[in-house]
Amino acid sequence: MTCKGQTACEVTAELTGIEDLSRHGKVQAVIARKRRTKKPVTLGLTRKSIPAGETLTVTVSLNGHGNGLVSRLHHIGARYTLSQGHKTLFTGTLKFKAGRRESASS
After folding, report:
1. Structural domain tally of the chain?
2. N or C, where is the chain less crowded by C-beta within 10 Å?
3. pTM of the shown model
C-alpha cells in the first residue's frame, strides 16, 4: 500500500466471514459470501499509519476465533477489505487451510 499525499494515511485491513449456523445453531462452515442461516464474524483486523510518500506491506493475522475455526473446520473462506476512513480501497476473497500436522516419530 502506498500513501500518496502530504500527510500520513490511516488504513484498516479487515478479514470477515459468514458463519453458517444451519444445524442446531452450531458452526458448520465459514464462507466468504452470504447464504442460509448466517452470522457475520471478524476473523482478523489491523490498523496501520503509512507515512506520506512511503510504501508499506499490510498484513492481517487471524484472531483467536479465526484460528479456532480453521483448526476445527480445516478450511474457511474470508473476505478482505482494505479501507481508508470510510472509503474502501480494495476487496477480495481468501481461503485459509489448516496446516499439516507433523507426526511424532521416535
Report:
1. 1
2. C
3. 0.71
